Amino acid sequence: MLTLKPTPGNPVPPGATLVPVRTADGLTLRAAYWRPLTRTEKGTVCLLQGRAEFIEKYYEPIGELRRRGFHVVAFDWRGQGESSRQVEDAHKGHVARFDDYRLDMAAVAETVLVPSTPEPHFGLAHSMGGAIAFTGALEGWLPFERLVTVAPMLSIRMVKYPLAASLLSRSLHRLGLGKAYIPFGSAVSIATKPFKGNRLSGDPVRYARNAAAAAEVGAGAVGDPTIAWLASAFRAMRRLRDLRVAPRIDMPVLVVGAGADPVCGLPATERFAGRLRAGHLIVLPGSRHEILTETDAIRADFWAAFDAFIPGHTRVESAGSRRSVSEPA
Questions:
Q1: Which residue numbers in the chain have pLDDT < 70?
Q2: I need a labelling partner for 169 at 20 to 30 A (CA). Which of 55, 66, 306, 325 fits?
Q3: What pTM does this model have?
Q4: Which distant-in-sequence residues (6+ apart) come within 8 Å of 61 by Cβ?
């Protein structure tokens, strides 16, 4: 049975509708959607998580989006949160190949996004979700009119020698070790590690809140990735960094970089954004990897950029009628 777990200081946003989503290859994903908290409706924002994330980490942004007049769709990618696993150890962050995430997005769009929420549909993607979204925008299957990516995963700074790590992960994968943890990997979630020296957020209150949520969801927070995930991630990032790729994306995109990101390399993000045909880049100085769980000042800058980029359609509901008013793009 699917659940949404509350923790002190992080209650479940009221009005959630939980939906089990079946993918084309037979997995079940946890998805949920919410209506806006305003009379005016601006469309729908779908959240695309980063690796090792889960819906509970997004309760605060869900509320902020609803207060802005958006319907919100959130879901767990395969291999994390309460979605199905393809390995016995639920703590392993595993996917056989990044192309499988396309099946997740297609299933969520078909089961939740299209039948249950109004257009226009927008994407808000973090880290790994950004890499998946860029791939979908490139290949034409991303179901959004506009996309906001936050600290997108185009390179991994946590890996000291990325070329060697890429070659090693591919070699180990070919030897049949794809479902094993990366070398020296463990079941410990990055979200539960001490605040001091953490890579994710400079806000101790939000960091502690997310650590409590990670402890509550247990294996849903997952630990380190598998060799298959890492090999697939390197392949996806290498493709996106090809100089010919970004100019082929014609979807309007706002790229928000974290100025002090120790997880995903900012230079790769800047180079990619600079080649987008309809792209806009802002960099938030001092922000670590998880911009949406950063300090109030950094988050205020993020939401100002988001509000300027995501206009949408405003629908005003009255007792007996509904009218549409187009806002400027």
A1: 312-329
A2: 55
A3: 0.93
A4: 47, 124, 292
